TrEMBL record:
Annotated compartments: Cell membrane; Membrane
Reaction equations catalysed: Preferential cleavage: (Ac)2-L-Lys-D-Ala-|-D-Ala. Also transpeptidation of peptidyl-alanyl moieties that are N-acyl substituents of D-alanine
Pfam family, one: PBP_dimer
The protein's Enzyme Commission number: 3.4.16.4
Alphabetized UniProt keyword annotations: Cell cycle, Cell division, Cell membrane, Cell shape, Cell wall biogenesis/degradation, Coiled coil, Membrane, Peptidoglycan synthesis, Transmembrane, Transmembrane helix
Any single biological process term in GO: cell wall organization
GO CC terms, sorted: plasma membrane
Gene3D superfamilies per UniProt: DD-peptidase/beta-lactamase superfamily, Penicillin-binding protein 2a (Domain 2), Penicillin-binding protein, N-terminal non-catalytic domain, head sub-domain
Domain Penicillin-binding protein dimerisation residue range list: 59-300
Location of the region described as Disordered in the Swiss-Prot/TrEMBL record: 690-711
Domain Penicillin-binding protein transpeptidase: 348-678
Similarity remark: Belongs to the transpeptidase family.
Name recorded for this polypeptide: serine-type D-Ala-D-Ala carboxypeptidase
Length: 711
């Protein structure tokens, strides 16, 4: 029988081939893993362990403001605060923490907006929110928009379709969570954001501190709030600071961000707080957060603990400032009892060291009607000393006499005959009485208008002929104004405060108005300009730059003053170009005004023991105040400038009482305020020299000067 040939199978071969291929692949994989681990292992390890350094700046308290005698004027009051730092978590995690925190603290929802509610409703009701936009609408939007733009369009449709009924689903508890969640999301990543710093109770602070482990990102700390020791005293000039809620002002946010500020930083918004922002803001604490690739904080390192802002030592004496404000208030209320004072509502005083430019008091008060109660009340208006200007009258005549000397219009001792000037086409221009022949010094003493008129005519290149016309060169206006500017009249004084007004210059060049300019009844000036002007005369011809800050000092933890960083040195803006004896003539005239019988201020200052000198002013003006129905009504402005002691001036003063009366009896409030202010200055000085503390008594009670006069 024939054997059948056995058929050879190919299965073992194929199986072996498969094993071989698997072996090769496995060998390649092992080789590849070896290369990765041995050759590139360190590189991949570093990539996995790669971290990022994120530096965060934490705000510090602002610097203090301290008056010239060492009293704290502006300080920081510590207050408990609860903060949240977003360490890179998502919305759901933040919402969970907000819900937990809402059960531990009370948080009002006053700042929650309509948009906040809608966003929160969407977060809480995602499925219902999605149904607000149909599939058909989504497809149509997808055809027009891509990616993020598409998402924005859908979200906008959802927002627009959320109804009041939908929002009513948010409970009171939801609103509290929303208020907290809103604070969580308003800050930067890794930057602490204040959740609550007002009225945090000890119980809230304690219970949150105890549960921090359940509240990732939440912390308890100490925040600060600006505190003004003297309440409304000088408050407007000290300025304001933004709240932690507001942060950087929107209109200046780019400027501040470029300087390293955070959006929720508190900054000065006005006057001294803003003017010295760079000094007061301080050096922020710097913390370096080390994060892994996923954004989780791995470690935290303190780079710099930061430093509270530097302190400002002010030139102002707050005892004197308060006393002056009280005097203004009392005299304003008293003056309002006189006939014809219905438009009188304000008064201003500036006290300045004529040798250094240091402002010792910057006081203004205004009577306003409370819109809620309908009653009149007194408000601080210290800003009005340099932001409002008025016709001041004869107080500028010292500048007119010196302008006459400098231009050659008159010489020391030049006489003029004081009688009404009769100029064609105008009313007679005259002094308050006819003085006959009078020289420069006595013209100041009795406040002769006619003497100043003749001086202005000479400056303008004219010649007075009774009954004739009075052709004057228009350049005369510029000449007078340029010389007045040497004293600070009609120009910026240079004070270290913003928004200073220089005053209004009349544009009509009718010749008669040049005469009015010479007696202070054409252009307008501020109280601060008047103080700089009289200081220039007091010190012998140097126009000093006024300033509110005396020193900048390093902050100290205790109540001691820190080392001086910068001392503001007296700055001479310009010196009058005068010949020997010229300014002494004006000083003599000013001394006669207050110290010699017949002087316009002698009745008030004749017995003053500190030997004052000065000049009074009464200007015929027009009302331009808040009562629109009385705009352009004729009024009388009262002013006074002075300094003391005559031979060695240490204090210069300017007083302006606008719209003091309309007809009726002159209430002389400028002189009453001026005498009491000068008395108070010297009484406070004497009390301190004697080791007493009678600054308040000097304002409230009878002054030492008055007692001496009675004796």
């Amino acid at each position: 029988m024939k054997k059948r040939k056995k058929k050879k199978t190919h299965v073992p071969f194929r199986l072996n081939m498969l094993f071989f291929i698997v072996f090769v692949l496995f060998s390649v994989l092992v080789l590849r893993l070896g290369v990765v681990q041995i050759v590139y292992g360190d590189d991949y390890k570093r990539e996995i362990e790669r971290t990022e350094d994120v530096t965060v700046n934490n705000p510090v308290p602002r610097g203090k403001m301290i008056d010239s005698t060492g009293k704290i004027v502006v300080d920081n009051v510590p207050q408990n605060a609860i903060t949240y730092t977003n360490n890179g978590v998502d919305q759901e995690e933040m919402l969970l923490v907000a819900e937990r925190l809402s059960k531990l603290i009370e948080k009002d929802d006053k700042k929650v907006t309509e948009r906040d509610k809608k966003d929160f409703w969407i977060l809480k009701h995602q499925k219902k929110a999605e149904k607000k936009v149909s599939e058909k609408e989504r497809k149509q939007l997808q055809e027009k928009y891509k990616d993020e733009e598409y998402d924005k369009k859908v979200y906008r449709l959802i927002l627009d379709r959320i109804t009041e009924k939908d929002l009513s689903e948010l409970s009171k508890a939801d609103m509290e969570v929303l208020a907290i969640y809103r604070e969580f999301t308003s800050g930067y990543k890794f930057t602490p954001q204040i959740v609550k710093n007002k009225d945090v109770t000890p119980e809230e602070f304690a219970v949150v501190s105890e549960n921090l482990s359940l509240l990732p990102g939440v912390d308890t700390t100490t925040d600060w709030e600006r505190f003004y020791t003297y309440e409304d005293t000088l408050r407007s000039v000290l300025g304001g600071v933004t709240t932690s809620d507001k942060g950087l002002p929107a209109e200046e946010i780019d400027n501040y961000l470029s300087k390293g500020y955070s959006r929720n930083d508190r900054v000065g918004t006005s006057y001294l707080e803003k003017q010295y922002e760079d000094v007061l803001h301080g050096q922020k604490a710097k913390v370096k957060n080390v994060t892994d690739k996923a954004g989780n904080i791995v470690s935290t390192e303190m780079i710099s603990e930061g430093q509270r802002g530097k302190d400002l030592i002010l030139t102002v004496d707050m005892d004197l400032q308060r006393a002056v404000e009280q005097i203004i208030e009392e005299e304003l209320w008293t003056a309002r009892k006189y006939p014809g004072t219905g438009l009188l509502d304000r008064a201003y005083v500036v006290l300045m060291d004529p040798n250094t430019g240091e402002i010792k008091a910057l006081a203004g008060k205004r009577i306003v009607r409370n819109q809620e109660t309908g009653k009149t009340e007194m408000q601080d208006d210290a800003l009005g000393t340099f932001t409002t200007t008025y016709n001041v009258g004869s107080a500028v005549k010292g500048a007119t006499i010196l302008t006459g000397y400098q231009t050659g219009a008159i010489s020391p001792g030049t006489p003029f005959y004081d009688a009404p000037l009769i100029i064609a086409g105008t009313k007679p221009k005259k002094s308050w009485k006819n003085f006959g022949s009078i020289n420069d010094v006595n013209a100041l003493k009795v406040s002769s208008n006619v003497y100043m008129f003749h001086t202005a005519i000479k400056i303008g290149g004219g010649r007075y002929i009774p009954g004739g016309s009075l052709p004057l060169k228009k350049e005369g206006f510029d000449i007078i104004r340029q010389h007045f500017a040497q004293f600070g009249l009609g120009v910026r004084t240079g004070i270290d405060l913003p928004n200073e007004q220089i005053g209004a210059k009349g544009t009509d060049t009718t010749p008669g108005l040049m005469l009015d300019l010479a007696i202070g009844q054409y252009d307008t000036y501020s109280t601060l300009q008047m103080a700089q002007y009289v200081s220039t005369i007091a010190n012998g011809g140097s126009r000093m730059e006024p300033h509110m800050v005396k020193e900048i000092r390093e902050p100290q933890m205790d109540n001691e003053l820190g080392p001086i960083v910068q001392e503001i040195q007296p700055k001479v803006l310009n010196r009058l170009d005068l010949e020997s004896g010229w300014i002494e003539r004006v000083q003599l005239g000013f001394r006669k005004v207050m110290g010699e019988s017949g002087g316009t201020a002698y009745g008030f200052f004749g017995n003053a023991p500190y030997y004052p000198a000065g000049k009074t002013g009464t200007a015929q003006a027009f009302y331009d105040g808040p009562l629109t129905n009385y705009r352009m009504s004729p009024v009388m402005n009262l002013s006074l400038v002075g300094y003391a002691p005559t031979n060695n001036p240490e204090i210069a003063m300017a007083v302006i009482v606008p719209w003091a009366y309309t007809g009726g009896t002159d209430n002389r409030s400028n002189l009453k305020i001026g005498r009491r202010v000068m008395d108070t200055y010297f009484d406070i000085k004497a009390a301190r020299a004697a080791g007493g503390t009678t600054a308040d008594e000097a304002a409230n009670g009878e002054s030492e000067t008055e007692k001496k006069n009675e004796e």
